[in-house]
Amino acid sequence: MANIRTFIGVQVPTRIVNNVSRVIGKLDATGADYNWVVPDNLHVTLNFAGDVLDREVHELCQKLKRTIEVHEPFDLSLNGVDGFPNAQQPRVLWIGVDEGADALAGLNRSIEETLCDWGFNKDRNDYTPHMTLGRVKKAGRWNEKMLDLVHRHRNHDGGFCTIDTVTIFSSFLDPGGPTYTPMSRIKLLGDQ
Predict the structure, then answer these.
(1) What residues of the chain score a pLDDT lower than 50?
(2) HEC string of the chain?
(3) What pLDDT, in 10s, does the model give residues 130-147?
(4) What is the CATH number of the domain that holds 14?
(5) Quick check: is 192 in a domain?
(6) Range(s) of the domain holding residue 138
């Protein structure tokens, strides 16, 4: 019996991935000691479920489908590079969500309720809709050149799209970084 690291998120069109990837390329060129997200892995996370027994994945996907599909499609815009815990000492760099943040927060709450009913622990952190760009490496460090670039991209327009699908992913950690594989795609149908 194997565990599958599982998370739920939304994917964005190629034009947004390309836009955000150009910003990541500029950040990487500063020489800061970060693990940068590769283009194929760019997404907005809704919830990290954690380890799910492989034999339970199908049932969990079905429960999440019933939870997710009642939500309406929504518009999403990405804007502004920032960091956690802050932009002056960023362990994680990200681009924020402007339009669509409320819809994502609503999806997050619904998904979290279903996961808690399933037996998963509630996430300790408040949900902040964002797309992760990179994480500082273990014992790594940011540099002034990168911090300056983050400041200059505080209002970066990452792009706009309509979200009509939520994806349940598996995540496999390899030496070269994580690999995300869609296990289920759920259409947002609203109240039909």
Answers:
(1) none
(2) CCEEEEEEEECCCHHHHHHHHHHHHHHHCCCCCEEECCHHHCCEEEEEEEEEEHHHHHHHHHHHHHHHCCCCCEEEEEEEEEEECCCCCCCEEEEEECCCHHHHHHHHHHHHHHHHHHCCCCCCCCCCCEEEEEEECCCCCCCHHHHHHHHHCCCCEEEEEEECEEEEEEEEEECCEEEEEEEEEEECCCCC
(3) 999 999 998 778 889 999
(4) 3.90.1140.10
(5) no
(6) 3-187
Which positions ≥6 away from 16 have C-beta within 8 Å? Answer: 42, 78, 158, 159, 161
Q: How many angstroms from the chain centroid is the CA of residue 77?
A: 14
Q: What is the chain's length? A: 192
Judge whether 161 lies within some domain. Answer: yes
Residue 98 lies in a domain: yes
Count of domains observed in the chain: 1
State the Cα–Cα distance between residues 172 and 192, nearest whole angstrom.
36
pLDDT score at 120: 75
pLDDT of residue 89: 87
pLDDT at 141: 80
Q: Is the pTM of this model over 0.90?
A: yes
CA separation for the pair 165, 189 (Å, rounded): 9
